[in-house]
Amino acid sequence: MKIFCVTPAFNEANNIVAVINSVKPMVDEVVVVDDCSSDNTYSLAKQQNITVLKHIVNLGQGAALKTGTEYAIKEFADIIIHFDADGQFFAKDIETVIYPLVNNKADIVFGSRFINKQDNVGMPITKKYLLMPLAKLVNKLLFNINLADPQSGFRAMTRFSAIKINWQQDQMAHCSEILYQAVKRDLRIKEVPISVIYHNFGQKFSNGIKILVDLFLAKLIK
Fold first, then answer.
1. FRET pair for 62, CA 20 to 30 Å: which of 2, 54, 69, 108?
2. Positions in the chain short of pLDDT 50
3. pLDDT tens-place string over residues 166-203
4. How far apart are CA 167 and CA 181, in angstroms?
């Protein structure tokens, strides 16, 4: 069984090496997709003896994940993991996330920060009590999805599921589109607990609002 980890990266020079090295022992191949970083993320990743793909223009996290996922499919990956490059996820949780796939209990698994209360300790207040509830409401209203975590970037899917899911959102709203497509295609969905370390970066209120706006404007239900 070939397990690939796809990691989108944009200006993550401070974190990329540590993230790669933490994930390497858990998977068969790490695929970093550099989304046209202006720092040395790409060169640092290349030095780690892994697969590194590069966008010549900045397209967004959703687009970077799609590039990496399509590569993994072409390389006949059996399980494809999505794992952020900012150092907030724990590589040890990969085992928990892929367990239902390895044991044929699910087709796609979403890591959740809200199943156990301790998993979201340190989450910014606006994100925890405003943006996440709003995102959850949007998922419910637009897609009839009611998972505990509406916007987790830590997920894993089988090759079969990755081929069936074809998201179009290039930015952060891809999380909800992947959820929606998984439901629409009758995939077996499982949510498992993960832990997160919250940093000062990547948690801007405006980013969360943009996700919600993108979801409403895109009208993903087709």
1. 2
2. 201-206, 208-209, 211, 216-217, 219-222
3. 888 877 678 888 988 898 899 999 999 998 887 654 44
4. 8
Cα angle 173-174-175, degrees, rounded to a multiple of 5: 85
pLDDT of res. 114: 79
pLDDT of residue 175: 83
Find out whether 98 and 176 touch, Cβ atoms under 8 Å.
Answer: no
**Three-class SS state of 196:** strand
Where does residue 157 rank: exposed (0-12), middle (13-18), buried (19+ CB within 10 A)? buried
* Long-range contacts of the stretch 99-106 (C-beta < 8 A, 24+): 99/192, 100/190, 100/192, 101/156, 101/157, 101/158, 102/1, 105/188, 105/190, 106/188, 106/189, 106/190
Q: Phi then psi for 24, rounded to 5 degrees? A: -45, -50
The reported pTM is 0.83
Rounded alpha-carbon distances, angstroms, from residue 2 to 15, 175, 183:
25, 24, 25
Tell me the C-alpha distance between 206 and 148, whole Å: 22
How far apart are the C-alpha atoms of 87 and 176, rounded to whole Å? Answer: 22
Residue 151: per-residue pLDDT = 73
State the DSSP code for 187. -
The pLDDT of residue 202: 44
